[in-house]
Specification:
Elements (H helix, E strand, L loop, with lengths): L3 E5 L5 H7 L5 H11 L6 H11 L7 E5 L2 H6 L6 E4 L6 H5 L6 E4 L9 H6 L3 E3 L4 H19 L1 H4 L5 H6 L30 E5 L3 H12 L3 E5 L6 H6 L2 E3 L2 H7 L2 E4 L13 H6 L5 E4 L8 H10 L4 E4 L19 E3 L9 H18 L3
Length: 360
């Protein structure tokens, strides 16, 4: 009898059914083959490779659930469960007498009762997602580019090109001085010693904190509930309420989900609380930052710079008002890329599930 795998209905987790469930629709298979084609042109070959490396999982019956109620209703004959944000507590474990493994699509186990799982002999697996790491890397990349004004200065290597930006070349007295920054570009900064405020110390926020700490940054964070002391120590992060975080940070970086509560989370009042000249980098959904308030903050000069991925519109427009600001960087929704981040994550996850169900 094919194993029953219950999966939280996330757009990336739908690939589990495409790979493992022979009843997955042709339309969905074709959609994902197209989605991955620019990085993995042989999506069918990739699926076959995963099936070979995950013996015992194919063929499977994959059931998708969106709510906590639907999760419980589908657990009676489930051998494996994959969740991202849904909770797995003692009630869910009790409703799943055949359950052998719970896979968290990530590493944060706050919503999974590991003790209840262990008491019933249910293994709990985690996955450090490459896509989350890629998002953290892009946030840091945008910060580095803004700090060194690379987006403005790239290719401006002649006196004429710099003059077009308003920097008239005047040689230093080389008999006495070095020649670094011969273009006399002001306002260049480093990240070392600067304060970064993270809004949401979740999985991506924690990946980012690891990298910010490596650059010698002071790390503040805010979220609905303060993290345990052990987490704060691990990520060298200090809790602040939102208003204090905004006031103390040289950089503000939100890592929050796309839900109604986070729309326009950073509006006019919040941007005005930020330090004059502080910079904002947003790789959550664009509407986390109020667009009109953002334009005002950039026009006034109070906001020292802004980085964005993804955009307010998809595709973007060449006449986007934000493109007029030299201290703004926008990229076309590339934070979690390349696609192999997702493919490698899912391959690792399905191989791990197969091993767990085989008792290895």
């Amino acid at each position: 009898m094919p194993p029953v795998i219950v999966v939280e209905d996330d757009r990336f987790l739908r690939i589990v059914g495409v790979v493992l469930d022979p009843n997955a629709s042709r339309e969905r298979r074709a959609a994902y083959a197209d989605f991955f084609a620019h990085d993995e042109p042989d999506f069918d070959g990739w699926c076959d490779k995963v099936r070979r490396q995950a013996p015992g999982l194919y063929p499977a019956e994959v059931r998708y659930v969106e709510t906590q109620e639907a999760l419980r209703e589908n657990l009676a004959d489930a051998r494996a469960l994959i969740v991202e944000s849904l909770a797995v507590g003692a009630g869910e474990v009790a409703a799943a007498p055949r359950l052998e493994v719970v896979q968290k699509f990530g590493v944060d186990l706050r919503r999974i009762d590991a003790a209840a799982c262990a008491a019933s002999g249910v293994a709990v697996l985690t996955l450090r997602r490459r896509a989350n790491i890629a998002c953290a890397e892009l946030a840091l990349t945008l910060m580095l580019v803004l700090a060194r004004r690379v987006n403005e200065l790239q290719g401006r290597i002649s006196a004429k090109a710099l003059a077009a930006l308003g920097y008239d070349y005047k040689p230093f007295d080389r008999r006495h001085t070095p020649n670094s920054n011969w273009g006399r570009i002001p306002g260049l900064q480093i990240l070392f010693g600067a304060t970064v405020g993270i809004i949401g110390l979740g999985e991506i926020g924690r990946e980012f904190a690891l990298r910010a700490a490596a650059f010698g940054m002071r790390i503040l964070y805010t979220q609905r509930h303060q993290a345990p002391a052990a987490i704060e120590q691990q990520y060298r992060a200090t809790y602040r309420p939102m208003e204090l975080l905004l006031a103390e940070s040289d950089w503000v970086v939100p890592f929050v989900p796309s839900v109604p509560a986070t729309q326009n989370l950073l509006g006019r009042a919040e941007l005005e609380r930020m330090r004059s000249g502080a910079r904002l980098v947003n790789i959550s959904r664009a509407n986390v930052v109020d667009h009109a308030a953002l334009i005002e903050a950039l026009q006034s000069g109070r906001l020292g710079g802004f980085g964005l991925d993804p955009l307010y519109e998809t595709p973007g427009r060449d006449d986007d008002e934000l493109l007029k600001f030299p201290n703004v960087i926008m990229t076309p929704h590339i934070a979690a890329q390349p696609r192999f981040n997702a493919l490698d994550d899912l391959e690792e996850m399905m191989i791990g599930l197969a091993r767990a169900l085989a008792g290895r």
